[in-house]
Specification:
Helix content: 40-55%
Mean pLDDT: 92
CATH class of the largest domain: Mainly Alpha
CATH architecture of the largest domain: Orthogonal Bundle
Largest sheet: 5 strands, mixed
Distance between the termini: 59 Å
Number of helices: 16
Number of strands: 7
Order of helices and strands: EEHEEHEEEHHHHHHHHHHHHHH
């Protein structure tokens, strides 16, 4: 089967351009195998990273047909089927470098910021907690299960590449770092949980910078589900803080309270309670005036509120979840 590979070629000094290569391949051939053949048989100047070829090292992460993936894991057949390219005379697979990182050459990106962001969360179990005399610091299977998912991360950068939050917020540490942070928060051997949660709670650089777009979950080749790990950290922060701590925390708590009250969000109250801190924050209240005026003049400011159907069911569900959480906290 003949397949065209449209590969983005560029350097630090040159603009990106597509270069097309044609190979006779089998559906089971991996994308990495095809790149090797292009380099060995057609163009030795093509640059890309690789190492283990077995979905272990994460080196060969790149954008394949528009989404970040491991070239050693994806094969020709599944990629053509995914983009429905098998009906073309010569089906095509596009390959580009990862996003949110500057390109060095072709498919090789500069990952310095990626590693710097990881270092920001201090991704090591604290040494003080491991100073147990005359025995190993053992964990039960139940304790280890708390971070099974985050322990699977191979730091390939796929989630970082697709992160929408990073595109607009350079201070956000990224889903890869926060997935690793979840492991530290839930690791029974670490004794810095409160300090870490305070750090990860910082404005939009930590967990509150996540826009919940789910791209990190959808592209992760190891099923780490970074968004789920971020949500777990948020849960730990919310359990330890009240609504006066910050706007992000108040946003979450007010949202749940309003849904419990009326089945859905009462937009008349939401801004005043979150940004205005229940009319305690004068600066926050004044910041709402321009938006409120624009909404009012456009006829988009609701003047009344009706509870949704099934409000009692929603309220019962929220109360039951809270009761389970309280019982779980008492038992632990």
């Amino acid at each position: 089967m003949h397949v065209q590979f449209q590969i983005v070629r560029q350097t630090r000094e040159s603009a990106p351009r597509f270069q097309t290569y044609t190979l006779d391949v089998e559906p089971g051939d991996t994308i990495l195998t095809c790149l090797d053949r292009i380099k060995w048989e057609q163009d030795g100047s093509l640059a890309f990273r690789k190492n283990c070829r077995n979905t272990i090292c994460g080196s060969c992460s790149m954008r394949i047909n528009g989404r970040s993936a491991l070239a050693c894991k994806e094969n020709v057949g599944s990629e053509l089927q995914r983009v429905q390219a098998t009906d073309r005379e010569i089906p095509t697979i596009s390959i580009a470098p990862m996003g949110n990182m500057p390109v060095i050459k072709d498919l090789v990106v500069d990952m310095k910021r990626f590693w710097d962001d990881l270092d920001t969360i201090d991704p090591y179990v604290s040494t003080n907690a491991r100073r147990v005399p005359e025995r190993e610091f053992l964990q039960s299977p139940e304790e280890r299960e708390q971070f099974d998912n985050s322990g699977n991360c191979i730091l390939c950068g796929a989630c970082y590449s697709e992160c929408n939050a990073l595109e607009v917020n350079p201070d956000f540490v990224g889903p890869h770092a926060l997935a690793k942070a979840q492991r530290l928060v839930f690791d029974s051997r670490d004794d810095r949980t409160e300090t870490r949660l305070e750090q990860y709670n910082q404005s939009t650089s930590g967990v509150w910078g996540c826009t919940r777009c789910y791209y990190c979950n959808s592209v992760c080749p190891m099923e780490v589900a970074p968004l789920d790990r971020i949500s777990q950290i948020k849960g730990e922060i919310l359990a330890r803080t009240d609504r006066n701590t910050s706007i992000p925390i108040r946003h979450r708590k007010v949202l749940v309270d309003l849904v419990r009250e009326g089945g859905w969000v009462d937009e008349r109250k939401f801004g005043f309670q979150v940004v205005g801190n229940y009319f305690r924050d004068l600066k926050g209240l004044l910041s709402l005036v321009p938006l409120g005026w624009r909404m009012l003049t456009a006829g988009k400011l609701p003047l009344s509120f009706e509870a949704s159907e099934g409000t009692q069911d929603v309220r019962s569900l929220i109360d039951n979840v809270r009761q389970v959480e309280r019982e779980t906290d008492r038992s632990s």
